[in-house]
Every structure is written in structure tokens, then in C-alpha cells.
Design goal:
Helix content is 29%, strand content 32%. With 162 residues, it is of the alpha+beta class. Strands 8-5-7-6-9 form a five-stranded antiparallel sheet, with helices on both faces. A hairpin with a 2-residue loop joins strand 1 and strand 2.
């Protein structure tokens, strides 16, 4: 694996065929929809940042471009996307509090996405929910990079809350 720091917000990585075999991926199987490939790409990104000595700001997310490389390898280009607004979510540990929160969201005609992951409920309000007291129901956190929602969408169970 060869790492090149193009600029503070962009890192390029050249993977050999051997690197890709070790990661269990091929150029044809790389894609955000494939969980195994996604985990492999993120591990390459972490290793590349470590080697380059950078800690990129990913406020707006991460863009990954792939290009075919030589000898069954590929080139991955990681770029930080532009900053987007923070999205807040609430982690609720018990079912009664979760159901109370959903009921209140509905009564105030607010929409949200909900997930169940590792025995906890997560609610992401859609749009702006000013003044909604999520802290009454659980722990409120900011999902600045979008990784929390992406992880829940991939590994959690989406709940239909109407």
C-alpha cells in the first residue's frame, strides 16, 4: 500500500493485488453497498491517515473515488466533503421512553427516522425540530460526520414509526 497526501483534505492510496486480496476485495466488488468492501475501504482510509500523519475533518462526510490500478490493484482517492449542518440524534435505552418519545413526535407532527441497535433505540429527527425536548427521553448527540446514521442504517434495524 502506497500513500500520498495530496492536500490536507485529500489522500490517495495505491493498493496492489496482494493488498486487495488481504482485504478480501477486488476492484469489481468495491462499492458502498457492499458491507465487507465498505469496512475494508474504511480500514484503508484509517491506515492511510495514520501513515500520512493527518486527522482530516470530515464534517461533511467522506468521498471515495476508485480507479483501476496496475497488477490487479486499484487507486483509492479519499476527499473530505464540504461541511454540512450538524444532525442531532437521541439514544434511548428503554422501550417505554422510546414509545413516549415517538408518541410525542407524532402529536407534534414531527417526522423522524428510528433504529434499534444493540438494545438501544436511536431517533434522528428529519428537518428541524426546534425546541423538541429529546433530552427528556435519552442522551442527545451530534452526528457531525454522518457516520452514526450510516452505521445504524447498515447494522441496525430500521423501525417504522410513521
Amino acid at each position: 500500500m502506497t500513500v500520498l497526501l495530496n492536500e490536507p483534505t485529500r489522500v490517495s492510496v495505491a493498493l496492489t493485488g496482494e493488498d486487495m486480496a488481504r482485504l478480501g476485495i477486488t476492484y469489481d466488488t468495491i462499492g458502498a453497498a457492499a458491507p465487507r468492501a465498505r469496512r475494508a475501504i474504511l480500514s484503508v482510509f484509517d491506515e492511510a491517515c495514520r501513515r500520512a500523519g493527518v486527522v482530516p475533518r470530515l464534517d461533511g462526510g467522506l468521498l471515495v473515488e476508485t480507479l483501476p490500478g496496475s497488477r490487479s490493484g486499484c487507486i483509492l482517492i479519499f476527499s473530505a466533503r464540504q461541511t454540512r449542518d450538524k444532525r442531532y440524534y437521541c439514544r434511548i435505552n428503554d422501550t417505554d421512553s422510546f414509545l413516549d418519545c415517538v408518541s410525542r413526535l407524532r402529536s407534534e407532527t414531527l417526522r423522524a427516522e428510528a433504529y434499534l441497535y444493540r438494545d438501544a433505540y436511536y431517533i434522528f429527527p428529519r428537518g428541524d425540530a426546534p425546541g423538541f425536548p429529546f433530552s427528556e427521553y435519552g442522551e442527545v448527540s451530534a452526528d457531525e460526520s454522518g457516520l452514526a446514521l450510516a452505521r445504524l442504517a447498515e447494522f441496525g434495524r430500521r423501525l417504522n414509526i410513521g
